[in-house]
Specification:
188 residues; Protein Transport Mog1p, Chain A; 4 helices; 11 strands; 49% strand
Length: 188
């Protein structure tokens, strides 16, 4: 399996259609998903993948994944809407801990850091993992946000020995939701 195929598989595994638009702004583009209710700046052109996955206690949900690459960096945004009963059955911090644990398990990576972050009033995590794809040491940096019953995940993947790409950090910092969603009722 080549590295790009492995990265695409990783994006789908992390669960982690609609009106999409991309507007050029310098070397990065503002990518918006109307159904996903988010926008992000990225130098990559995204392709969408939609698939059904099983989460939690066997609940079937739809994972929306947008991924693309620019130079040596792969850029990914995913979202999934959890059933309201599942989303409200966990404290946001506990749910995010489970998400990070799942990322480490799915990638068979090593967690280097996981720090609490906020997106407005919604809880999140900033993560960094070391992963091995086809014998190549990679660094995966990401953000996970629980916004109401929706989990957003965005991350970049690049060779560990590559210079840090400022565009990769700008991508993570630029994520915004474009419609108000209720904050998880368990959030305090």
């Amino acid at each position: 399996m080549n590295t790009k195929a492995a990265l695409a598989w990783t994006a789908a595994a992390l669960a982690l259609a609609g009106c999409l638009r991309t507007e050029a702004e310098g070397s990065a583009h503002v990518f918006s998903s109307v159904p996903g209710a988010f926008s992000v700046r990225s130098p990559a052109r995204f392709r969408e993948d939609v698939k059904a996955i099983t989460v939690g206690r066997g609940d079937r949900v739809t994972l929306h994944s947008f991924n693309g690459d620019a130079g040596e960096v792969v850029y990914v945004v995913t979202y999934v809407d959890y059933p309201a009963e599942l989303a409200s059955s966990f404290e946001p911090e506990s749910m995010l801990d489970r998400v990070v644990k799942g990322q480490v398990s799915q990638t068979q990576g090593q967690l280097l850091r996981s720090d609490p972050v906020m997106l407005g009033q919604s809880h999140g995590r900033a993560t960094e993992l070391e992963v091995n794809l086809d014998g190549v040491a990679m660094t995966m940096r990401g953000r996970d946000y629980l916004v109401g019953d929706r989990l957003y995940q965005m991350f970049t993947v690049q060779r560990r020995d590559a210079a840090d790409a400022p565009a990769a950090q700008a991508f993570l910092d630029s994520f915004e939701t474009t419609e108000a969603r209720p904050v998880n009722q368990m959030a305090r």
